[in-house]
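Batch job 17 of 40 flagged for manual review because the log was empty.
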Amino acid sequence: EKVVTWYMSSETYHSKFKKMHSAYEECRADTTALYLSHFKEPYEIMFSGREDEWDDIQYVMWYEVARRGLYGLSFYDVETETWGQAHVNGNYVIMRVLYEVDG
């Protein structure tokens, strides 16, 4: 499908996504880190000499994002339907995707 809409010259990412822009950014940052955790290059840079721990580090990364998603529920205000922090909102979204995906 062809692109039929775009930002106007007076619009920005922030102006279009309002309060959600920070959560989108946090979600993007965390999913990028999770994606990169499947390649050896980041480990070679950050954990050189600890090759026997790389699988554990990757496991803990995924586990921690899911845990923060659950923890983030304590920052959700049911009355105003808002999140207290962008980080936890992003982690909650990732946790929900992990919960809903098959396999």
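Reviewer: the log was empty due to a logging misconfiguration, but the result itself is present. The radius of gyration is 17 Å. Unflagging and moving on to job 18.
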